[in-house]
Structures are given as structure tokens and as C-alpha cells.
Amino acid sequence: MLEISLRQLETFVVTAECASFTRAADKLHLTQSTVSTHIQSLEQELDSQLILRGARRKLELTETGRRVYAAAKEILNRCEALESMRESSDAATLSIATSTVPAQQLLPKLMSGFLKRNNAARFALRRGDSDAVRTMLEKGEVRIGLMGAQPDSRRFTSYPVAQDMLVMISENSPRFRTLKQQGATGIQLINEPMIAREESSGTQQSVEAYFTSCGVDTSALRIVARMDNPEAIKAGVVQGMGVSVISYLAAQEEVVSGKVLSFDLDRKKAFRTIYIAWRKDTALTAIEQKFVNYVRMEAPKIAQ
Q1: What gap in Å lies between CA 40 and CA 237, rounded to an integer?
Q2: Residues of the chain above pLDDT 70, percent
Q3: Which of 25, 51, 283, 299 could form an SS bridge with 161, CB 3.0 to 4.6 Å?
Q4: pLDDT at 89
Q5: Is the dihedral of CA 27, 29, 35, 39 positive or negative?
């Protein structure tokens, strides 16, 4: 069994990242000789040189050093995750980023239901479009994300949690009421002036993928405005600015109240998927795993 300490691994990782024994010593609050001793002990234990040394040589890792760095980094990340698994009220905070539609239509009910079962849980919530959620996860600013676009499976673990129907909405005017009575579909309204989401929105990415699959030239659409908020889009539609493809979850209240009309995009209907995701190198705490399981069980019911 190798006799390697976490301190040795941490010292090696920080030295590699700083590319300097001196800067590593300052960052770790150690003397430079102590840093050198930790790394030499690690090299002796592994029977391999990890760092190329020389008076005029820039600090570089050997081929073995690069492999050891990757393994040591993973070990240290997992140790940090273990520390975070303490079951106390302070450790029960769920750090979540969510895209627009889940934030407005899913998370309020999900958080409320989860708190009834886990009253020690607390939420720290951030919001952005699907690209912003992915960025926050990548940077470690949050630990769990809910988004309308599936993230890269090489870097993230993700699960589908809800199917969200896409519909075309229009103002509730005599002309559109007649079209609805005649059985028009949303795809037949694409020549109308249109209000769209911002291009980084998961909804917009799904809309453009759908149009492309139907052979529609998206560059020819008459987009009169792009808005980053479904509430603003719905208000624009009500005022007759144009039609818009939007999540039915986001438009349901206005459709039921008669403020807008809803058209299925086509006879088969069109859906996009909402995902829950986290970084592959993130070890979920017990409370986080409970929340993920709860979302996977309850979100499909809310989205129905």
C-alpha cells in the first residue's frame, strides 16, 4: 500500500498549477523547503520523477507527472465533496441554477414540495438561459442545474425530467380566432411577424431545431423582436406585435384566460426536454441526491 498523504498531493497539485515552488509555498503558507520535501517524498513513494528541475528551466511536469496531476486533482476534488456531506442545517443548502421556464413553472412547486419532506433544506437559486446555467455549472458557481438543453455528456451527468410542449401563441383577435377554428397549425403561421427568445435560450434552440427539421429557412423568419423573458414575449403578443413559439408551461395561464390563442405547431405536436444536470466530477451530497430523485419523480407530474 502506498504511503501518500493528502498534503503531499495538495502540494504537488498547487506547485504544478503555480508553475513555481515559491508561489506554491506562498499559496500554501509553507516554506519553500517544505514544499520541496513533500514533492520529493511523493516522488520517492511513486518511484518516479514528477517535475523537471533545473536552474534555468521553467518548472514543467514529466509525462508521469501529468498523469499523477490528473489523478491527484480528482482525489482532492472527491475529498472536498466528502467534506461537504456533513448533515447539518448549514450543509443542507442546495445551490441551483435554472433556465427561465423551469424557474417560473417547475421550481416553485418542486421547492415547496421538497421542503415539506426535508424542512432543514435551504435553496440558493440563480437564473439565466440554458447557456448561462451550463457556464455556472462549469465554473463551480452552482452544483445543480435545470435547463432546456442537454449539456455535453462528456463533462456533465444529466437526466431528462420533463417534456415541455412548444406551441405558437397569437393575439386573441377575430382573424386568429378564425384561423384556429379552421384548424390552422403553428407551422402555417410562420410568415407572421414573430417574437423570439434570445439565441442562447434552450427554448429558442429547440424552436430552431424544430423549424430546421420541417425544412424552414430560419433566416427568412420575420423576427421583429428578441426578448429574454417569456412574460415580455406574452405581453408583446397580447399587444399584437406578432406571434411567438413558446413553452406551453409558460403560456398556460394566458391561454386558459383567453388573453392569447394557442396553436399546436403541427398535428403530431412538438416537445422539448428539460434536464437536471451536474458536473461529472461533482459527488452529490445526501441532500442533493434526495433533491435530484425528487425532481425526477415529481417534475413530470407538474409538466403534464
Answers
A1: 68
A2: 95
A3: 299
A4: 42
A5: negative
Structural domains of the chain, with CATH = 6-83 (1.10.10.10), 90-162+273-303 (3.40.190.10), 164-272 (3.40.190.10)
Q: What share of the chain is helix, strand, coil (3-state, %, to 5)?
A: 50, 20, 30
Total residue count of the chain as it appears in this document: 304
Contact, 234 vs 260, CB < 8 A? yes
137 and 156 Cβ atoms separated by less than 8 Å: yes
Distance of CA 210 to the CA centre of its chain: 22
- In whole angstroms, give the CA distance from residue 151 to residue 146: 10
Classify strands 144-147 and 93-98 as parallel, antiparallel or unpaired.
Answer: parallel
Judged against a pLDDT cut of 70, whether residue 117 lies above it is answered with yes
| pLDDT tier at 55, thresholds 50, 70, 90 | low
